[in-house]
TrEMBL record, chain A:
<protein>
    <recommendedName>
        <fullName>ChsH2 C-terminal OB-fold domain-containing protein</fullName>
    </recommendedName>
</protein>
<dbReference type="Pfam" id="PF01796">
    <property type="entry name" value="OB_ChsH2_C"/>
</dbReference>
<dbReference type="InterPro" id="IPR012340">
    <property type="entry name" value="NA-bd_OB-fold"/>
</dbReference>
<dbReference type="InterPro" id="IPR052513">
    <property type="entry name" value="Thioester_dehydratase-like"/>
</dbReference>
<dbReference type="InterPro" id="IPR002878">
    <property type="entry name" value="ChsH2_C"/>
</dbReference>
<feature type="domain" description="ChsH2 C-terminal OB-fold">
    <location>
        <begin position="48"/>
        <end position="116"/>
    </location>
</feature>
UniProtKB/TrEMBL annotation, chain B:
<dbReference type="InterPro" id="IPR016039">
    <property type="entry name" value="Thiolase-like"/>
</dbReference>
<dbReference type="InterPro" id="IPR055140">
    <property type="entry name" value="Thiolase_C_2"/>
</dbReference>
<dbReference type="GO" id="GO:0008289">
    <property type="term" value="F:lipid binding"/>
</dbReference>
<dbReference type="Pfam" id="PF00108">
    <property type="entry name" value="Thiolase_N"/>
</dbReference>
<dbReference type="InterPro" id="IPR002155">
    <property type="entry name" value="Thiolase"/>
</dbReference>
<dbReference type="GO" id="GO:0008299">
    <property type="term" value="P:isoprenoid biosynthetic process"/>
</dbReference>
<dbReference type="InterPro" id="IPR020616">
    <property type="entry name" value="Thiolase_N"/>
</dbReference>
<keyword id="KW-0445">Lipid transport</keyword>
<keyword id="KW-0414">Isoprene biosynthesis</keyword>
Length: 139, 385
């Protein structure tokens, strides 16, 4: 799949830029909107915040059956990333994992974002991140 | 304001219908309905409007014109509803609203899906998309996330999740229109191939062609068609997303809670009043967490609920007597309509080998996933005899 859509969220993909609703504190990632998904404020006022690179796995799966052009196993997690300055709420982030060993993964496992080229859209590389278990946390 | 009543239903056997075109599916369900209305029907004269549910996965059924072509019901309003896995039940809900409003006297609700004509298959081509981050989230992954977290948070066991599939396959062997008519054991489920850890092949519904239709009318006309109409007591529809940050959405579906709350409030019934339910079991885990979302048991107690046999055919609150999506199949546009048809039969005492004795109140539920696997839609309808 090609096209501009993957390039619209470059700051989110590469710098973990997120958006905090000034009414309810919800942290939107990757969506940059003028309406709030949680409180419905419209127009809402958002302030840019940076997310920390480390957070906790809230839940995960390991996908074993995918279209032929995607390698398996392909683990996927929902990770809560706190804000980099330690203030406010975390953002709930979908992300691929590098770990494929179930022994290394559980709800609550600490992971960190590792930035890399994830794939290309047919024309240009898309740089984003995958989550990995930091070396000092590995069992 | 009038009530709405279901006064007829028609269905084709679900399965791999390679010999049937998409129009054949629609026509088959429609003719079965026409031929089974107790007191008969003159379709072109009696039917005022059509609500038609399909995602049109086969790409040959778009717009209300398609259902007119398949049934011969031209010169009438015909509305296509597309709402993820709640497509069929939302088509029904829209028809009910129009009848209750007095704008339509007799409505045909019909849903169909040809799942097996797609060359790329569901995993490759479905609404899954490639996420913005680049790689797809499949349906088994989306639901599997809930399984992983539910097991961790509530000590739900893999065997309890598997038991949903065992129960529904057993029911499906007794339901004549079910696609997959075989029994399986907990070991069969837990030892089948991993699709998306923690879910295995037998945790997943099959890929199935099917169609189903029901007839909805008002107080005044209901007994023109049957002496045993089934009243629509309530309905609800809602959307939600785990992206909103609620921890409950990591294990369950807030959209199902909202939709069922609306339906309970509108009907005056609560979860304890439900005698039989047809709920969304696209995956085994989906039905398990739905017990909680519909209030059939407390949060986190779904494992014990099924261990105690409550949702089994001979239990206190039978769930998916038709075999559910796991056995009957999940032709998306038809799925919700077929659940309504099953509740209609249950409440009329016509459900054959899967009849729940003396069922008076029945509930139908779908949960559907949309928006690149981040959002959920839920529809709940409550019927009573
Ligand atoms: Zn807000």
């Amino acid at each position: 799949m090609s096209g501009p859509r993957y390039h619209r969220t470059r700051a989110q993909d590469q710098r973990l830029l997120a958006f905090e609703c000034q009414s309810c504190g919800y942290v939107s990632f990757p969506d940059e909107r003028r309406t709030c998904k949680r409180c419905g404020d419209a127009p809402a006022t958002f302030e840019e915040v940076r997310l920390a690179e480390r957070g906790e796995v809230e839940t995960f799966v390991v996908q074993e059956y995918l279209p032929d052009d995607i390698e398996v196993p392909q683990p996927l997690a929902i990770v809560d990333l706190p804000q980099a300055d330690g203030e406010g709420e975390s953002a709930r982030v979908y992300g691929l994992l590098t770990e494929t060993e179930l022994d290394e993964l559980s709800v609550g496992t600490e992971v960190e974002a590792r930035f890399r080229e994830l794939f290309d859209d047919g024309e240009r590389p898309i740089n984003s991140f995958k989550f990995a278990v930091p070396r000092e946390v590995k069992r | 304001m009038t009530d709405a009543h279901v006064v007829g239903s028609g269905i084709i056997d679900f399965g791999e219908k390679y010999e049937w075109s998409f129009d054949d599916l629609l026509e088959g369900a429609y003719l079965d309905l026409v031929e089974s209305v107790d007191h008969g029907i003159e379709p072109t004269k009696d039917i005022d409007a059509i609500w038609y549910g399909t995602l049109d996965i086969a790409n040959e059924g778009a717009s209300g014109a398609s259902v007119a072509h398949a049934t011969g019901l031209f010169e009438k309003p015909a509305t296509q509803i597309v709402n993820a896995c709640a497509t069929g039940s939302d088509a029904f809900r829209n028809a009910v609203q129009a009848v209750k409003a007095g704008d339509v006297e007799v409505a045909l609700v019909i849903g169909a899906e040809k799942m097996l004509d797609s060359t790329e298959g569901l995993i490759g081509g479905a609404a899954l998309e490639r996420l913005w981050r680049g790689r797809g989230v499949t349906m088994p992954a989306f639901f599997g996330m809930r399984a992983t977290r539910h097991m961790e948070q509530y000590d739900t066991t893999r065997e309890q999740i598997a038991e949903v599939s065992v129960k529904n396959h057993e029911n499906g062997t007794k339901y004549p229109h079910a696609h997959q008519q075989f029994e399986c054991t907990v070991d069969d489920v837990t030892e089948s191939a991993t699709v998306s850890y923690p879910l295995n092949l037998y945790d997943c519904c099959p890929v199935t062609d099917g169609a189903c239709a029901v007839l909805v009318t008002n107080d005044e006309r209901a007994r023109e068609f049957t002496d045993a109409p089934v009243r629509v007591a309530g309905y609800g529809f809602s959307t939600d997303s785990f992206m909103r940050g609620d921890d409950l959405a990591l294990t369950n579906f807030p959209a199902s809670r909202q939709a069922s709350s609306m339906a309970y409030e509108r009907s005056g019934y609560g979860p304890d009043d439900v005698d039989v339910a047809e709920v969304h079991d696209c995956f085994s885990i989906t039905e398990l967490i739905t017990y909680e979302d519909l209030g059939f048991c407390e949060q986190g107690e779904a494992g014990a609920f099924i261990d105690d046999g409550v949702p089994h055919l001979d239990g206190d609150k039978p769930v998916n007597p038709s075999g559910g999506l796991l056995s009957k199949g999940h032709p998306i546009g038809a799925t919700g309509v077929a659940q309504i048809a099953e509740i209609f039969e249950q409440l009329r005492g016509e459900a054959g080998d899967v009849q729940v004795p003396d069922a008076e109140v029945g509930l139908q539920h779908n949960i559907g996933i949309g928006r690149n696997a981040t959002g959920a839609v839920s529809c709940v309808n409550i019927l009573e005899r």
